[in-house]
Amino acid sequence: MSERIDAAFADGPAFVPYLAAGDPTYEASLEYVEALDRGGADVIELGLPFSEPIAEGPTIQEAVIRALEGGMTPERFFEFVEDLEVEAPLVCMTYYNLIYQFGEERGPRPFVERAAEVGLEGFVVPDLPAEEADPLRDACDEFGLDLIFIVAPTTRGEHLDRMREHVSGYVYVQARLGTTGAREDVSDQTNASLERLADWDVPKAVGFGIKTGEHAERIVASGADGIIVGSALVDIVAEGHENDEPTAETAARLETKARELAEGAARGANPENVPQPEQP
Amino acid sequence: MTELEASDDGTERTPAGRENETEHEGDDRPLEDGSFGRFGGQYVPEALMPALEELEDAYRRYVLANEDGFMDEFRQRLRDFGGRPTPLQRADRLSERYDRDVYLKREDLVHGGAHKLNNALGQVLLAKYMGKERIIAETGAGQHGTATAMAAAHLDMPCEIYMGRTDVNRQRPNVFRMRINGAEVNPVDAGRGTLKEAISETMRDWSQTVENTHYVIGSVVGPHPFPAMVRDFQSVISEEARDQCLEQIGSLPDSVLACAGGGSNTMGAFHHFTADESVSLYAVEAGGSSLEVDEDAGVAPNSATLSTGTEGVLHGARTHLLQDSHGQIMESHSVSAGLDYAGVGPELAHLVESDRVTPVTVDDDAALEAFHRLSTEEGIIPALETAHAFGFLHEAAGRDDADEVLGDSVVVTVSGRGDKDLETVIEETEKRGLEAAPDLSVFAKEGGLR
Predict the structure, then answer these.
(1) Which residues of B fall within a CB distance of 8 Å from A133?
(2) CA distance A197 to A160
(3) What's the rounded mean pLDDT across residues A53-66?
């Protein structure tokens, strides 16, 4: 298992941002991911774009389309990882078909081997439930990578137990039903989900709908070991792209947003330090 | 007497035709984990897993075990609302033309004009038994959307249909029918705006609304238990056809031909024949404009998944797919929107791999020619999907080994009627200058039937 991911969660709440690799171009995307790193990312989830991202909302779906149109492929993704200069450990988020098709022999092993070679630390695969995960779990064990599962608000019973057996690194707690996407509030379902996982011995990182430092603070204060933020960051990339903003400016805005989220998470870990909101 | 009529006597029954099970048990049952050989499975976002477990439980109880008389009610509604059983009709002029007995299984006569109602009615009724409050579905050609909208209206359930923008434009009559039946139609703009984008969008809706909503998948695709369940609802086609053959011809047919997109018509038409080794089964796929693939453009100019696809994972199942060498799903093409899908049912992939079903292809031109032939010679205007099956009949009957391939008696499923396709047919016939077709130029100049 990845010691770097363990370390990322060991020292206070982790801020885990997501961007689709290659969105909107290879070069700009490198700068954007590095900006998140400077802004305080503890782990970075890098999306390897798949043409049918059924678990994603419109924001990330469009990012995926931009990246694919920019020529992103699995091998290019691995080169991207090699070209990145970041401190944070990297996790690959993608769909199973790309993992399954990579290399000469069908099956996940060649993909995992290549991922290990370029220094990735783990995987999140939204369309691979624990029931179908044995081959990927075995390959991850062989190369020392983590396999991170998403727990939904609806996950119960035996299904939860199977996931607990398979998961490593951290568990991705889905804050509410639905697809990814930034929202104005944070779901009440989060607390219930965290309670169900209270005795799991992996860190719990909450994602889906986190948009602001204040959200991050509230999520961590309610017991999360980390926060995962995708769409709110991808929105910044999309705006920059649509407005023809210079790459450096978009990168600066991403860095600022990352800092806001990381600081929010840190405040949530020390509730006594949280300033009380002013009464209207 | 057909199986359906038998149910009126109060005979205890399971799904369409299950009492023949001991007689017809093949290797096509899904295993406990929902797989057919190497194909199938449940590759879906975590949020959907409980819904699949709930659905599997309902499938076992209501469909397989007829709990609360579910299957009895389904069969009664298929008969009274759906108009079953459909006839097995001898096509006299085609029989003469091809010098063998050609029988048509007339699914175009099912209410709504296609076999799609068998499944839609089954699933909407099941959703009601499960206590769901809302129905969603995706549609390509619009036949499944229409059938679902009709079934939902019939059973008083609110219904929303996702449909690719391209398909909305080329299948307008069905869009009107869905709206008139009270369903919301949501156009999907992503990608090329066809069935695969509509399926992805419907899965997104479902993952947000899974607690009160049932997703009526339109074919034998998707995660377990959909492929098995949809096959069971559709297998009434081969259940009737098999009995009708025994009754009307006194023997089983030598071959059964069915068009294959996702595979619901195909599996429905084949299921009760799979154990009959003497019956050749042909899945007729859309060859589009070519079987070649332009990988750089990400486009397959056909929808021939069984014939040209490779193994992969899409929309919840491991199956055959049109994909590039990286595993990205290709845009497919067919003149028939109903066949235009980059995947295929896992059971069909398995039956092809185990050599029980033979996949063949028919291109756009041959399908259009067959469309006109059936229309002018038999007075049946078939769906463009269906026309592919007749295109293969025409091609195979002209071959030296026709007797070996088709045999003396052939059953072809008329999977649906072609009213929905008339605008496409007029436009494409004129564009291609097909000689065998009636002169449609005046309509084409006037902009189709608009």
Answers:
(1) none
(2) 9
(3) 90
Query: By the 8 A CB rule, do A59 and A238 touch?
Result: yes
- Return the biggest CA–CA distance within chain B: 59
- How many of the other CB atoms lie within 10 Å of CB of B436? 12
Distance (Å, whole) CA B443 – CA B450: 9
Parallel/antiparallel/unpaired status of strands B310-314 and B316-321: antiparallel
Nearest to B208 among A101, A159, A179 (CB): A179
Residue A1 confidence class, pLDDT cut points 50, 70, 90: confident
Per DSSP, the residues of B244-291 read HHHHHTSS--SEEEEE-SSSHHHHHHHGGGTT-TTSEEEEEEEEET-S
Sequence-ordered alpha helix ranges (H) in B63-193: 70-80, 92-98, 116-129, 143-154, 165-170, 172-180
What are the Cα distances from residue B24, in Å, to A3, B231, B277, B283? 55, 15, 10, 20
C-alpha distance from A6 to closest chain B C-alpha (Å) = 24
Query: What residues of B are in contact with residue A154 (Cβ under 8 Å)?
Result: 47, 49-51, 210-211
Residue of chain A nearest B201, judged by CA positions: A54
For A172, the closest chain B residue by CA position comes to B46
| Cβ contacts of B49 on chain A, cutoff 8 Å | 129, 131, 152, 154-155, 159
**Can you give the pLDDT at residue B2?**
36
**A227 forms bridges with which residues in the sheet?**
A15, A206
Question: How many Cα atoms are found within 13 Å in the side-chain-facing hemisphere of B157?
Answer: 31
pLDDT averaged per 10 residues, chain B (length 450): 37 38 47 84 90 94 97 98 98 97 98 97 98 96 94 98 91 92 94 83 89 95 96 98 98 98 97 98 95 81 94 95 94 87 96 98 97 96 97 98 98 96 91 84 63
Query: Could you tell me which of A252, A59, A38 has the C-alpha nearest to residue A47?
Result: A59
Query: Contacts of residue A74 in chain B, CB cutoff 8 Å?
Result: 326-327
Instruction: Tell me, yes or no, if B116 is annotated catalytic.
Output: yes
Residues above pLDDT 90, as percent of chain A: 79
Given B35, B219, B336, B415, the catalytic residue? B415
Provide ipTM, 2 decimals.
0.91
Q: Cα B365 to the chain's mean position, in Å? A: 21
Contact B321 A97 (CB under 8 A): yes
Region of residue B365 (phi > 0: left; psi between -120 and 50: alpha; otherwise: beta): alpha
Cβ separation A154–B210 shorter than 8 A: yes
Nearest Cβ partner for B50 among A50, A52, A154 = A154
pLDDT surpasses 80 at A183 = no
Q: Which of A51, A65, A155 should we substitute to test contact with B (largest number of B Cβ atoms within 10 Å)? A: A51
Contacts of B140 (CB under 8 A, 6+ apart): B163, B164, B167, B194, B195, B198, B218, B261, B337, B338, B340, B341
pLDDT in tens, A10-42: 989 999 999 999 999 999 999 999 999 999 999
Indicate the pTM of the whole model: 0.91
